[in-house]
Amino acid sequence: MIAINDNTELAVGLTIPAEIGMAEEDISTPALIIDLDAFEKNIKLMGDFIREKGIRHRAHAKTHKSADIALYQIAHGGACGICCQKVSEAEALVAAGIKDVLVSNQVVAPRQINHLAAMARQARVIVCVDDLKNVDDLSAAAVKHGVQIECLVEIDCGSGRCGVEWGEPVCQLARKIAAADGLSFSGLQAYHGAAQHVHDFHLRQAKITLAVKQVADTVEMLKDEGLECIIVGGAGTGTYYFEGTSTVYNEIQCGSYIFMDADYQRVRDASGDFISEFENSLFVYTSIMSHTKADRAICDAGLKVLSVDSGLPVIFGRNDLEFIKCADEHGVITDPNGVLKLNDKLKLIPGHCDPTCNLFDWYVGVRNGKVECLWPVTARGLSL
Q1: For position 287, what pLDDT does the model report?
Q2: What is the value of pTM for the model shown?
Q3: What is the DSSP code string of 69-137?
Q4: Would you tell me how many other CB atoms lie within 10 Å of the CB of residue 366?
Q5: For 83, which of 60, 170, 350, 360 could close a Cys bridge (C-beta 3.0–4.6 Å)?
Q6: For 24-35+277-376, which CATH superfamily applies?
Q7: What pLDDT, on the 0 to 100 scale, is given for residue 138?
């Protein structure tokens, strides 16, 4: 954690949006702020779930890309380790003290494979595989560095991205991994990413039910060949309950649950409500910078601080206002009653939390109206 107080002299200009102890309303905007009470509640709820179900949680760090948050999830939320999507992302977090990391993606470029193997000197390293030639390349790098790399065979269980078909294609890869020098077969990666934001509960459940059946059948086929799945992993915030209660998956990989976002407010549970056990804890804090039109205000949060791939942000706690348009540096807000004034502050719930976080250098942790902590976005922009 970085602690910066009023007595600290900074010679770097206006690059850090707040100071420890500062009132929330004095934070420079646009800023990425965390409601620490909601954040901690979300982490506790997930920790309680995994303990009750007797499974593991490998928290997905692609959401936050922060060493401070990853270490907190392990220390206070019972996470067994973390997931990353990129080797460079994993390197930054391992360097900060993470000891158990899954690159939940394929690593095929020679330079990245070399870095992955070197990282295995510092931490437990697991990677996903869906190609026979890739097994040879990973093995050669592991032998070169004198390390052991654990491999999960990835199943395409419905997303249509990476992964092989369930059944024999998985077994073929698993056999080759198990026989390769420097590698060990540790199990399966079966993450249905496309299902996370299927808004209808029953359709989402049906997609995961099919995936679980495919995974269960594959686990049995592997067992018949003497290949044990130490890890059967997958699941995200939108579907974790299904995989977590399946008795097939033993590791879930939720990431967005700590923050939530506007699109997750459209994902419904069986009663028709949104997934309400987790609270919005992440906001883009913004200020009104212009109000020359009577019914519209302009804020200082635009495309450079907001990812809009899942829609525009929602203004937290304000039904009288609507965020309707983004430009590079500006956001347009309807203000039909003309209540907003220059420098008024608003909290925006981003449409998609993961890519929004990657646009910032700092998290500002707030509790009871005061800045309590500043956390750097450790792996911001690391995409190799």
Answers
A1: 98
A2: 0.92
A3: HHHHHHHHH---EEEESSHHHHHHHHHTT--EEEEEEE--SHHHHHHHHHHTTTSEEEEEE--HHHHHH
A4: 26
A5: 60
A6: D-serine dehydratase-like domain (2.40.37.20)
A7: 98
